[in-house]
């Protein structure tokens, strides 16, 4: 059976993408770095996001790369420890050159989150969820 899931994303410039994610607080397993890819590690569970140069990614998928300015291939959601954590990530994203397309706000009475696009237009959702307020 499978042991881990890895998310693979195409990027225009691996070094710039790595710098962006580093600035907003992600870490990297540099043992897996090449000039055309980098290995980003998310959270305590060590969820892996591989960032591949677009031409290399297209070779793997044998498919066209989505134009992230006109469509979304996926919404990547990550959890936050608090509302303040959501706010801080949104500030870091803006400072690092990303696009906060949905400012931090309450949602459905039990979630607080924001949405941002990275340098390549991939959309991310950061959520703090207070399950004690989840409607029954």
Written account of the structure:
By secondary structure, this protein is α/β, with parallel strands linked by helices. It has one domain (6-133): 2,3-Dihydroxybiphenyl 1,2-Dioxygenase, domain 1, CATH 3.10.180. It is built from three helices and eight strands. The strands form two sheets. It has a four-stranded mixed sheet. A four-stranded mixed sheet has the order 5-8-7-6. β6 (99-107) and β7 form a beta hairpin.
Total beta-strand segments: 8
Q: What is the CATH topology assignment?
A: 2,3-Dihydroxybiphenyl 1,2-Dioxygenase, domain 1
Helicity, in percent? 10-25%
What structural class do you assign from the helix and strand content? alpha/beta
Strand order of the largest sheet: 1-4-3-2
Overall body shape: globular
Strand content: 35-45%
Major sheet size, sense and barrel closure: 4 strands, mixed
Instruction: Please work out how many helical segments DSSP would assign.
Output: 3
The CATH architecture comes to Roll
Counting copies of identical and different chains, the oligomeric state is single chain
Q: What does the average pLDDT come to?
A: 93
CATH class group: Alpha Beta
Instruction: Output the helix-strand order.
Output: EHEEEHEHEEE
* Total domain modules: 1
Which residues sit in consecutive blocks of at least 5 with pLDDT less than 50?
A: none
Calculate Rg over CA atoms. 16 Å
CATH superfamily: 2,3-Dihydroxybiphenyl 1,2-Dioxygenase, domain 1
User: How far apart, in Å, are the first and last alpha carbons?
Assistant: 35 Å
């Amino acid at each position: 059976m499978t042991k881990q899931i890895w998310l693979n994303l195409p990027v225009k410039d691996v070094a710039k993408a790595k710098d962006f994610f580093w600035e907003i607080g992600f870490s990297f397993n540099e043992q897996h770095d090449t000039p055309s890819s980098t290995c980003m590690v998310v959270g305590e569970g060590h969820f892996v996001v591989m960032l591949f140069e677009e031409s290399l990614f297209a070779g793997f998928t044998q498919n066209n790369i989505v134009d992230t300015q006109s469509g979304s291939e996926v919404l990547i959601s990550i959890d936050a420890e608090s509302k303040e954590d959501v706010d801080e990530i949104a500030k870091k994203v803006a400072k690092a050159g990303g696009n906060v397309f949905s400012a931090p706000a309450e949602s459905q009475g039990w979630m607080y989150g924001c949405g941002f696009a990275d340098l390549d237009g991939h959309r991310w959702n950061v959520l703090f969820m207070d399950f004690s307020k989840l409607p029954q």
